[in-house]
Amino acid sequence: MKQITRAADLQSAVKQAKEQNLEIGLVPTMGALHEGHLSLIERALKENDMVVVSLFVNPIQFNNKEDLEKYPRTIDADLKLIESLIARIECRAKELLAFTPSVEEMYPQGEPKEVYHFGPIEEVMEGPRRPGHFSGVAVVVRRLFDLAQPKRAYFGEKDYQQIAVIRSLLEQIKYPIELVPCPIVRADDGLALSSRNMRLSPAARAMAPAINATLEQAAEMAEYEEVDDVKEWVLDTLASYHEVNDCPDGLRFEPEYFEIVDAVTLQPIAEWANAEQNGAVGCIAVWLDGVRLIDIVKF
Ligand code: AMP
Question: Best of 29, 144, 199 to mutate for ligand 1, by most ligand atoms within 8 A of CB?
């Protein structure tokens, strides 16, 4: 593993790799790595000759200043985790570049002016609640595409809407990059791993698996209940969780949204039959203990 902080150094390493016809895999992250990120990195190491992992807390995708400030930054531990992953797996890749630029290095001209639009895909769920978020993601991901020139790019299904956005970005900019969606990695108790989980108090962390448990029950209900009934049940179950369970410190779930959408178009469906072709996915955002958690379930 080699750490690179300068864009120019990444470009020259990529140029050399390209001259040798090496296939490059890119894994964009914001650091604070956990097993979820490592599963993407592992897959990239197995499917490519060289892997670029970016660790960059991208300020322009945060629409909440406090969230940006509180975002964990643990570069040294992250690099150790990557080293230990490389040591424990068989991989095709001969080289891993960990790209850890500063904000100035990523955006030398200051805050980028470019704006991306994704139409109906960004008009649902995260889109209206996080104005500018997906455009900020697209700006950084495009910059990473330009620098790393990957054949394949790896993204986690935990950020389900983000995958649809990147698919649309690739269509817009016409880069021949293969988008590789990767399944969610969960803790043993079912909670989707997230860098934000470390901000949960122990009591909140103990409650958090109820999100996935509720979604799993919803998947079973979908066999015999209508879409709207499943939606309502999920929102009610989480919103009233503290009334039914013993939750310390006034902890409670505050669902922000739960939508059942077509797995590709991300448009809400009224009936299960409407998603026959692409499948249906349930996407949720829930506040717990001041932390915003997201998760999905496939129906
Ligand atoms: P982040 O650092 O949160 O921006 O995440 C970087 C990448 O890792 C994104 O493509 C995420 O979707 C993915 N990711 C985050 N958590 C998980 C998880 N629990 N399982 C699989 N992928 C994940």
Answer: 29
